[in-house]
Protein: Solute carrier family 66 member 2 isoform X4
Organism: Lates calcarifer
Amino acid sequence: MDAEVVLQDEDMEGSWTLLSWLAAFVMVFGGALPYVPQYQEIQKSNNSEGFSTRVCLVLLIANILRIFFWIGKQFELTLLLQSVVMILTMFAMLHLCCTVQNTNRVSTKRHRLSDLDLNYFWKWSAFEDYLLFCFGFTVLCAVVTLLLLDSVVFVEMLGSLAVMFEAMLGLPQLLQNFHNRSTKGMRSSTHSPPALCVHRASWMWFC
């Protein structure tokens, strides 16, 4: 009888472990998966006008801030991995958009980060400029965090800023659709309720 109870307990423990791993997998990759259809849509149509790259800007800033928030106030490692996956996903989206835009470009004029032209902020022609901007932003955050890491107020402010930026996730795409007077080329899955729920659930986990 005791042996049966032990086996049942082990089976239950194994089931909970499996569910825990499954939940962690969904949390890590769930936020990035909705961008796969969008990536495929851009590849297929060879047109990125329907997708706002400023969505990438919002998510890159939010997740970089979240990583530095983790340094000051460690939370679930799953959420840290989620941020890393999301950052890599946004870089993949930006790389594809730059490739497609350069292929379809009629004008020979190229816009670079070094031009320091605010009218073309985050509309650069080269993918390297996006990497350079994110690298500079990360270094700035690293220096400030290193100096103010002992300040509880600063650490909490990092978390609040990360939440605030991610709350603005839908705004860039809304403005892009308004500018285009169309939603053509945009996959609704990237801003669907399930996709947004993964983001919100992740923030609720550590807030």
Observations:
- The chain is about 70% helix and 0% strand.
- The chain has a mean pLDDT of 81.
- The CA atoms of residues 139 and 145 lie 10 Å apart.
